[in-house]
Write a structure and sequence with these properties.
The protein is mainly beta and about 450 residues long. It has helices spanning about 30, 50-60, 210-215, 255-260, and strands spanning about 5, 40-45, 70-75, 85-90, 90-100, 105-115, 120-125, 130-135, 145-150, 155-165, 170-180, 200, 215-220, 225-230, 245, 260-265, 290-295, 295-300, 305-310, 320, 330, 335-340, 350-355, 360-365, 370, 385, 415-420, 425-430. A 7-stranded antiparallel sheet has the order 17-16-13-14-15-19-18. A hairpin with a 2-residue loop joins strand 21 and strand 22. The protein is elongated, with a radius of gyration of 23 Å.
Length: about 450
């Protein structure tokens, strides 16, 4: 069958391993008689070399690599050899370790060895507890024995493990890497804004059917250092399996990269900013509290630049949407379409994405797409790619009388979905010349 369409709204218990509101989970160290944090074993990361980072990022961009937001620092910290152990009571043990970086905007941790017994609970939090990720528990164990945390918007974090004394020896844990964030995303982040020309998904009217597709799209981090976009797609069983499509060039084709991804859901600005306005070019207020950590590769093909992942665990209560897909060849009224899909002013196609890994945006196409080679408009070329032309005169949904600039995609949008006019998935973003201010043939990807 060529097209599948599915939507699920879930109302389950909170998803383990994700951020929680401050105060809803209290670290063990905050409620037990333990030594002061100043006496807990720690490490300090080296200062960030901003000039070197800028040179490296420019080189990465020229090579078409996915954007970077953090520097990887290798550690190799284990509870057996590092950190501070204490007895909370006769039956419970506490292990803590502190990681500091005076100039980081965020920190994230890659546990390159990870297996927790049933009694264990792991938290990552800022020293005052205002920023917290967890609890991470045995429910997060995976066959590849790794766990990569979402970012914590702090320059210092505490890794806290609470475990039954009888199971302490069964803990397998190694802090193999810390991601030292030099640019941020999420609420109160710095340098995460996208181009002002882009349109917030909040600008869609409440009854707009594209509201469903918005819930299929997520930003994600890989190996604690790079980011891209992607989306849930449905399968023929319609069983809410967490299939997530993204781009191969986001370096997603191997098991290690797949294990490290953290997807961030419903990350979008709370209001509709007018495209082209100063506000639209500033940092948004989207929350990155809803996350899923880890995945496995299910399919991968470099020629058409796709990777299909299956995210870990059962679907969480994030009000997600599984987008349908379509691989039929569209035949235009004028003749064979060579795999074209029809888009028109009254029947728009759309891309939904996280430009510069900022708050979620939507970009419309009112012209038929064509099947081509990569970055080559000849039809059908090698048939590996879909060429999308972005609308040069888009409509602003809240007020069609307002004139707004064309919307585009940016670095960080890679891997995001292109949907046809029936709102079914037909491809993921590889790249192209579009940028705010682009015109003519450059207003495309």
């Amino acid at each position: 069958m060529n097209a599948r369409w599915f939507v699920v709204v879930l109302a389950a218990a909170a998803w383990l391993g994700n951020a929680v509101a401050a105060g809803s989970i209290v670290p063990t160290a905050f409620r037990a008689r333990v030594m002061p944090l100043s006496q807990v074993d720690s490490t300090s990361l080296p200062l960030l070399d901003r000039a070197a980072i800028a040179r490296e990022d420019a080189e990465d961009e020229s090579r078409g690599m996915s954007p970077r937001f953090a520097i990887a620092r290798k550690l190799g910290v284990t509870p057996q050899a590092h950190g501070t152990w204490e007895n909370v009571d006769a039956a419970t043990r506490l292990w803590r370790y502190r990681i500091r970086s005076n100039d980081a905007q965020s920190l994230n941790i890659g546990f390159t060895r990870f297996w927790l017994p049933q009694s264990a609970s792991l938290l990552i939090y800022s020293p005052d507890g205002s920023k917290l990720r967890g609890p991470i528990t045995a429910a997060d164990n995976a066959p590849y024995k790794q766990y990569w945390t979402p970012t914590v918007g702090a320059a210092e974090v505490v890794v806290e493990l609470t475990v039954a004394a009888s199971e302490a020896a069964a803990v397998e844990l190694e802090i193999g890497q810390v991601g030292q964030g030099y640019r941020g995303f999420g609420t109160n982040a710095v340098d995460d804004s996208s181009g002002a020309c882009n349109m917030d998904v909040k600008c869609l009217l409440p009854a707009d059917p594209w509201q469903d597709n918005v819930r299929a799209v997520a930003a994600y981090t890989r190996m604690g250092t790079r980011f891209c976009s992607g989306s849930l797609v449905n399968n023929s069983a319609g069983d809410t399996k967490l299939y997530f499509m993204t781009a191969h060039h986001c370096e997603m084709g191997d098991a290690a990269s797949a294990a490290s991804i953290v997807t961030y859901w419903n990350y979008e600005n709370s209001t509709c900013r007018i495209p082209g306005s100063a506000a639209s070019g500033q940092d948004g207020d989207g929350s990155i509290s809803q996350t899923i950590s880890g995945s496995v590769v299910r399919a991968d093909y470099a020629t058409s630049d796709f990777t299909l992942l299956e995210l870990n665990g059962a679907p969480p209560a994030f009000n997600l949407f599984w987008a349908g897909w379509d691989h039929t060849a569209y035949v235009s009224p004028g003749g064979p379409g060579n795999g074209d899909f029809a888009c028109a002013p009254d029947s728009l196609c759309a891309a939904i994405h996280h430009p510069n890994v900022a708050d979620k945006r939507i970009t419309f196409s009112a012209d038929n797409t064509t099947t081509t080679s990569y970055n080559n408009p000849s039809v059908p070329g090698d048939g590996s790619h879909v060429h999308a032309l972005w609308d040069p005169a888009p409509v602003f949904p809240p007020d069609p009388a307002v004139s707004i600039p064309p919307q585009v995609t940016e670095p960080g949008s890679s891997g995001s979905p292109l949907y046809n006019a029936q709102r079914r998935y037909i491809g993921q973003l590889h790249g192209g010349p579009s940028a705010c201010g682009a015109t003519g043939g450059n207003l495309s990807d």
